[in-house]
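User: Predict the structure for this protein chain, please.
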Amino acid sequence: AKKDDDFSVRNLTQMMQAAEQQTQVMTLLLGAIASVSLLVGGIGIMNIMLVSVTERTREIGLRKAIGARRTDILAQFLVESLTTGFVGGTLGIVIGVLVTLTISFFAHWTTALSTDAMVGSALFSAGVGVLFGLWPARKASLLNPIEALRYE
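Assistant: Here is the predicted structure, written as structure tokens:
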């Protein structure tokens, strides 16, 4: 009587290709999650800056009335949104590093942290802050000083 084969033959290149495909899928998934997070963070920065412009309308009017140019007001709010994005990104990096080191310690895993990736992330977060701060900064710079001084 003939028996069925109770073994299988695998090619290591097939296993390597499968592992590479899984890595690509995970990279795309993490990239999508990061993109959504950046979008949400950017919208948050925009809302913070819009509230800041609204609350400081009289201050903006006063600055314009005593000679501040449109570019001065624009630069002020862009620096604020850049700072908000950079600080938020830096806090995210610090939390991420702490979580990574904690999990690595308790799970006895070896992890590698990339300084280039961290610096790039902080700079990218600052860029997101500037990008999403453009509209509120422009809105502030276009305020009419007389109307802004009357604002309650």
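The mean pLDDT is 92.
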